[in-house]
Amino acid sequence: MIVTCKLCRKLYNGEGRICPECRQRLDELYPEVRDYLRDNHKLEFNVETVAEALDVDIRYVQELVAQGYLDRDLPEGVSSEVLSDRQKLIKAFESSIDKMKADAAVAASRKSVTYGQEIYGENTKRR
Ligand SMILES: [Zn+2]
Question: Dihedral of CA 34/36/42/44: which sign?
């Protein structure tokens, strides 16, 4: 069936949410993200900082998290400490994505409510 790629908005014939090209892009991006996170594990991460550091579209980083890329590929015999670090990281990613969505929703609703007040209300009152 013909579907729209969630990432590049291209129509493609196939299954799932993203097109084969984007899927390949994610496969290539994943090791970069993983290495970045490993090399900088002392830093606080969120999706924005990783996307910025790697110079990629933030939606690709979000998609990596959404697709569970960061959940898989744990080395054999990994210690529970490393594992919990990884889980913390994934949690941090997920919460930063949730926060962005929430912020966007708040910004959208705030805009419609206060637009008139910002322009005509407070400014004129102070004069
Ligand atoms: Zn695509």
Answer: negative
**Residue 56 CA to ligand 1 centre (angstroms):** 14
Ranges of each domain in the chain: 2-126
Q: pLDDT band for position 43 (50/70/90)?
A: confident
Q: Which pLDDT tens digit goes with each residue over 65-79?
A: 888 887 755 555 555
Name residues with Cβ closer than 5 Å to ligand 1, which is an ion.
Answer: 5, 7-8, 19, 22
CA–CA distance, 107 with 32 (Å, rounded to integer):
32
Query: How far away, in angstroms, is 68 Cα from ligand 1 center?
Result: 18
CA of 4 to the centre of ligand 1 (A): 8
Across 77-89, average pLDDT: 63
- Six token digits for residue 103: 């912020």
